[in-house]
Design brief:
The complex is a heterodimer of chains A (274) and B (256).
Chain A lengths: L1 H15 L3 H18 L1 H21 L14 H5 L1 H24 L2 H5 L6 H29 L7 H30 L2 H6 L1 H9 L13 H9 L1 H14 L4 H29 L4
Helix pairs in contact in A: 2-7, 3-5, 5-7, 5-8, 5-10, 5-12, 7-8, 7-13, 8-12, 8-13, 12-13
Chain B lengths: L1 H20 L1 H21 L15 H31 L1 H8 L4 H28 L8 H29 L5 H13 L13 H8 L1 H14 L5 H29 L1
Classes of the chains: A mainly alpha (274), B mainly alpha (256).
Chain lengths: 274, 256
């Protein structure tokens, strides 16, 4: 009887506790509000890739004179880069936000609540989703305004937005994993140069078949970032290229699934109930 | 004078010591120029096949000069980050209280930036030589290239110092870095000026970094061009930035 009395309030609490979806939405709401309040987080990561796009789009236009270059407008080739760069910035802001929650003790307080770890993980990505959507639309509009044309038409342009949001979501999840693993914003930020290296060691500036240095071409071929870029680029230059799309979307989904799964494992120790 | 030199020595020693003992500070300043060298000289080497691209020493050498000068500029920029951090932590205020000649603080940070770049510049040069960089310039030409790097480092360090002292917060990082980054990339980074077209050609034509870059490339290839203009421009920039950084220091002094 005594046991029943002791369990009574807990059982009652369980029956009225919000479900995973409600929990996720609550955490996502907080993440979105926090992101929108930090405008610097939105502006700098959005502008920096555009500056590089503007500069390199003109400075490297001579590359279109290389025999077998796939397009006569270098901006058509380069437009994929801001989407990926923006996604990499999203990973840092998502990771830093979560790291701040860990450092400030917010995560420890959450551990005292019945919040489920998957709700926390997915909900935290809400802010990243907002940035990802805004960035994708801005990059697309800037691209079109500067003369980028989509061989795949309006449908392809819409798919570019969809894929870039998926990529931003996957990178944000990577940022979360780093934050959970290391627990400090500084550690998350220090990973950024490494992410940037993966971008530059890919087919970001030239198609893989036109990269002269064998070792560089080899690295770019094994680098998944090349396929993320090429999936977006194919919609601009080639049209509907199923293989490029499958590879790009496949790598983005794989990154998302792997990082979320690993994050959930690390999260269990972060949200360990005493 | 002795007080000034003591401050310079103390600040410069602390700056380079902090760089060497803190991998989080040292590693990015080493990695960034290296990966730019790899990405540009390795990934973009096909650019040298563009019609009318003529640079005798080859594309690796062509890109090395940019990366070398960029590493010099970023040696100064990273020092600006350290100054901003010193203000955030309160160390800079204590430093100003204890320094008998405060202008020595600026000079000390500038010397620290130069020592920091000495490490980065050496690593980048060794990496470029391993990657097959051709050096056609004479010893005097190479000394000239080194001189361009030193002056570039000094200009960037004084700029960074001024901004860090005006704003006195780590959030000044973007403002320190972005103008330097943009100015460098608005020069003929990937192809010679003659192959640039459109707005980038007009901007690069007006950009003072272009003359420095062309002079550096000419010196490395053993066919110097625009060397006088490059040194005169950098000397002017040093004077301008010295005044600017002194005003930054005055602003920090007024703030207490």
């Amino acid at each position: 009887m005594a046991v029943d009395v002791a369990l009574g309030p807990i059982a009652a609490q369980r029956s009225t506790a919000p479900g995973v979806v409600e929990q996720t939405l609550a955490v996502a709401h907080r993440a979105v509000i926090r992101t929108l309040r930090q405008r610097a987080l939105l502006i700098f990561p959005m502008i920096f890739p555009l500056i590089l796009f503007a500069i390199n789009g003109s400075a490297l236009s001579a590359a279109t004179h290389i025999p077998r270059f796939p397009t006569s407008n270098y901006r058509d080739f380069l437009i994929a880069m801001p989407f990926i760069q923006g996604a990499m910035f999203v990973s840092i802001s998502a990771g830093v936000d979560l790291a701040r929650d860990i450092e400030s003790g917010f995560m420890n307080r959450l551990a005292l609540t019945p919040l489920r770890s998957e709700a926390m993980l997915v909900g935290q990505l809400g802010g990243a989703l907002v940035i990802g959507v805004i960035q994708a639309i801005v990059y697309l509009l800037v691209g079109v305004a500067t003369g980028v044309t989509f061989a795949s038409g309006v449908g392809g342009a819409i798919l570019v937005i969809g894929i870039s949001i998926l990529i931003a979501f996957a990178f944000a999840s990577l940022g979360e994993l780093l934050a959970l693993r290391f627990g400090t914003g500084e550690a998350v930020q220090s990973i950024f140069p490494l992410l940037f290296v993966t971008l530059f060691l890919s087919s970001s500036s030239l198609p893989r078949n036109l990269i002269k240095a064998d070792w560089f071409r080899e690295v770019a071929t094994y680098n998944p970032v090349s396929y993320l870029l090429e999936s977006l680029r194919s919609l601009v230059i080639t049209g509907w290229n199923a293989q490029a799309l499958e590879l790009g979307i496949g790598f983005a989904v794989a990154l998302l699934v792997i990082t979320v799964a690993l994050s959930q494992r690390v999260m269990k120790s972060r949200l360990a109930r005493l | 004078m002795r007080g000034f030199l003591n401050v310079v020595h103390g600040v410069a020693w602390r700056s380079i010591h902090n760089t060497l003992v803190n991998p989080a500070v040292l590693v990015p300043s080493l990695i960034f120029p290296l990966f730019f060298l790899i990405a540009f000289a390795g990934g973009l080497s096909r650019i040298s096949d563009v019609p009318d691209f003529h640079y005798a020493a080859g594309y690796t050498s062509f890109q090395f000069v940019f990366v070398f000068l960029q590493s010099a500029a970023f040696g100064g920029v990273f020092t600006g980050f350290a100054i901003a951090r010193d203000f955030d932590s309160g160390f800079a205020r204590r430093l100003m209280l204890s320094a008998p000649r405060r202008s020595g603080i600026i000079a000390g940070y500038a010397v620290g930036a130069l020592l920091r770049w000495a490490i980065t510049g050496t690593v980048v040069t060794i990496a470029a030589l391993i990657a097959g960089m051709n050096v056609y310039g004479s010893g005097i030409d190479l000394f000239g290239l080194l001189g361009l790097g030193v002056m570039m480092n000094l200009v960037a360090a004084l700029w960074a110092c001024a901004i860090a002292m005006f704003l006195r917060t780590e959030q000044a990082g973007a403002l320190i870095q972005m103008p330097v980054f943009v100015l460098l990339f608005l020069a003929p980074v990937y192809v010679p000026l003659s192959l640039l077209t459109g707005w980038i050609h007009d901007v690069a034509n007006l950009n003072p970094v272009t003359a420095v870059l062309e002079a550096g490339r000419g010196l490395l290839a053993g066919s110097p061009v625009k060397v006088g203009i490059a040194f005169a421009g950098l000397a002017g920039a040093v004077l301008l930035m010295a005044v600017f950084s002194r005003r930054g220091l005055a602003s920090a002094e007024r703030a207490g």
